[in-house]
Amino acid sequence: MPLQKLRNIGIAAHIDAGKTTTTERLLFFTGVTRKLGEVHDGAATMDFMKQEQERGITIASAAISCRWNDYAINIIDTPGHVDFTVEVERSLRVIDGMVALFCAVSGVEPQSETVWNQADRYRVPRIAFVNKMDRIGADFSEVIGQMDKYLDANPVAFHVPMGAEDTFTGSIDVIENKAYIFEGYEKKEIAIPDEFKDKVLEARQNVIEKLADYDEEIMELFLDGKDVDNEKLKKVAREATIKMMITPVFCGSSYKNKGVHLLLDAIVDYLPSPTDVGAVVGTDVDAPEKTHTRHPSKKDPFAALAFKLIHDPYVGQQTFIRIYSGELKTGMQVYNSTKDKEERIGRILRIHANEREEVDTAGPGDIVALIGMKYTKTGDTLCDPSQPLHLENIFIPPSVIELKVTPPTKKEDEKLGAALRKLSMEDPSFNVRYDEETNETIISGMGELHLEIIIDRLKHEFGVEAQVGEPSVAFRETITTEHEVNYKHAKQSGGKGQYAHVVMRIEPNDGKGFEFIDHIKGGAIPAEYIPSVQKGIESVMTEGVIAGFPVVDVKAVLIDGTYHDVDSSDMAFRICAAVAFKQAFLKSNPILLEPVMKLEVNTPDDYIGDVIGDINRRRGKIESMRRYRKGAQKLNGFVPLMEMFGYATQLRNITSGRANYSMEFHKYTPLPKDVQEKVLKKIEDKKKENK
Question: How many structural domains comprise the chain?
């Protein structure tokens, strides 16, 4: 099949907007499934994990292929819950176009904005589908207005809905000038009803006016008050969508099978193929300032990005990749430029949700799973060994909540460790660390639901009944002043000794992560030991200094040092650098950073005062309010995560169960001094208890 007829798309939205239901309809109408799987029945094709079926939500992004009108469509269904936003992140990194779903009643929700910003980060063209037009309170125009106001989406209505709520019967395509109603599983074209003709004319004029900005011929016709040929309109609309100048908006009710056929048409008509997206640009392995271009062609050198790992009980680890150029064959050698390792391709699988088809080759635009990869992880670049490059990585948000986990017996300690390692390899937003002072295994993730799912998977997939502590905040450590340290590590115990000497300065590096700068001159420390110094520092940063939390935003400058011809070694310089960094850190006015969350509360007007008062007591701050629906407001603000445990119960109590909220990570900020003292004392007391 020509690449022009391939669509790699993602479906993303706020939770409960109907993503999985819409995907199930797409699969049904393209003939992939014979019966409709429903979320509420736990029978959705794309929600094949036990935890998804039980909760009626999507947790892991799933891939499936289908065909529509001689086009091949690879669909990735993504989670809507903010705790699993990394699934959305890595899916958006490898797709070419996106269907953004909005509930016709709720409109633009918090996760809608998050997903939209993620799509902006990776420059993913998108169309919008306003779902649930049959629900009470459905308002197509209101949702478009919110998309314009809150997302800066430049939305353009390509549909006019025929009715709303219980009168919603179908849609009118304003470009084709055709009306469709939906009965059962069938789409029927009808004459445009008289009561909608003015609306259709107005909507079509709006499309022409919008597209006139991007095409001179349409501009001339518009200024002359003339209509535009349908094919011309469609061609320019496609170009403008791919260039992210407009967002075409369609409507329907997936659950009632209304509008899904037209959505499939819109996917092939307006979303890009790999050739439309064009070449991918990567950086040189040895000289990052240089770039290399890879076109979506089998003739170009092989280049692909690994975006997901799954441990399958039957076939082992599956490494999902998106191929950008070249051809991949079973048995061939590829180069992992991220890890500087060669990999041999064992088996290539095309994935259809939880089913798989083995193939011998794969090419540009393909999304496949590889079996037998030893070193490759999420975000790694795979490429031709003779022409290496680095592709853009995947943004991984920081984990913000921690849990202590212990095995039920000492015998199961190893089993728990192995299971946690596999899960952390699958999910880059899930982290595991061992606190040597308290002898505890600490897991951290994006939220309480995220870690709840992890614990559930430990039990059902790995057979480990882990004992779990109370959730706590994943703080970070940093410094506020600079300090220079001169430290010598010398040990002599018969035979070869250990010698290393470093002079190092550390300083704050606000918001820029960790930087290591080598200012050694004249070979005071041989070049071979410089990486050892950096590794020593990084080992301390992982473990923390004042409270066992990871260290962030520090610049370490290696100024001077000495070495011994015989006693110096990689290990000696690692130890030396680690001790030196700790000493300097403790004298650089160290502080704790806490995660601050972006909060949105939807509350009836009657409870606004109580809700705001409660947020203020939690060290939170309301930044804005806007009308949510009649009689209700959306409150937007920021609040420290450590103040939000138990908030769901409190919100229910003060609003009689009528309000709801969502939150997502915003940034790390310094912990107030009095709060920090309490946190550190609590940690110290806990250490004493465990001794």
Answer: 5
